[in-house]
Every structure is written in C-alpha cells, then in structure tokens.
Amino acid sequence: MKPYTAHHIGYTVPDLEQAVRFFTDALGAEVAYRTGPFNDPDGDWMIRQLGVHPRSELRIAQLRLGGGLQLELFEYDAPDQRRALPRNSDWGGQHLALLAEDVDAEAARLAAYPGVRVLGGVDTVGEGPIKGTRWVYLTTPFGMYLELIAPVVPLTQGAEP
User: Fold this and answer.
1) Which of 110, 144, 88 is nearest to 122 (CA)?
2) What is the pTM for the complete model shown?
3) 67-102, pLDDT tens digit by residue?
4) What is the residue range of 143's domain?
5) 85 and which of 6, 38, 100, 143 could share a cystine (Cβ 3.0–4.6 Å)?
6) Cα–Cα distance measured from residue 25 to residue 22, given in angstroms and rounded to the nearest whole number
7) Which of 21, 8, 31 is nearest to 116 (CA)?
8) Are residues 9 and 61 part of one domain?
9) Domain boundary among 78, 106, 140
C-alpha cells in the first residue's frame, strides 16, 4: 500500500489571533485563509462532523510554513471545553518539529520572543540512528510544544537502526 501524503496538520489553540501572530511574526508563516465563526445553534452538525459539543463555535486560520506544510489552527468556544494543553507525556500530547539550519541561533532568537520558553538547552544526539542531530524543545506563548531540529540524516534517506 502506498503511504498517504499529509495535507495539513491541525492544532486547537486558546487564542487564534495570538497563535497566528506568533507563527507569522516569529516563524515566517503566511496566512492562506481565515474563516468562521462556524456554529449550529439549533442542530447537531458540530457533534456529528467534528465530535465537539453541539453548541461549540469555531474559527479557523490556515497557514503555510516552509516545505509546503500547511498548519490549520482552530479556536473553539465550547461549553464543555477543557482549557489545558496536554503535556508531551499525556495521551494526545504532541509537538511540531521545524527544521532549523542553526538550532542554537534560532533557539536564541525565539527565546527573545515574548512568552516563548526554551526547555533546557540545545542538545546533540550522541548515539543511534540519528547521531549528531541537534535539537531543542520550546513552548509558544500559548503553550504549544515546538521542536527545532537539524537532522544529520535527511528524512528522505532514512536512518539505519
């Protein structure tokens, strides 16, 4: 079976304007479109189509990152909404890894952006299939985990176990 090709990645954020501003100002993303709000005050479309509370309201921004990656940002207002992002160790925990030619320089630049927190420091993988890869995790002003990574082995080549 031929693997699927990813079209976009979607993240729910607490404040759509703040998230769009961060991705465009700090990471160079371009806004492809914005849409919404969407809701169905008297029906069940939201729960049927999206699996969320029927009285939810949704706003969307689609962004373009480098390499053709599309990032779809959602902001929901829902009566039953949990307002805490999962940690990496939680089920549903996630991070978005972005290629960086100079991880150290980019980590320093992003650390100066208001609300960004660099976790630990830039590290280098010491052994295994991605030995030599440089990486660091950080959190955005709205709590989303990002990783800056400079892999030694391009993903198109694969890595030997």
Assistant:
1) 110
2) 0.91
3) 999 999 999 999 999 998 899 899 999 999 999 999
4) 95-161
5) 143
6) 5
7) 21
8) yes
9) 78
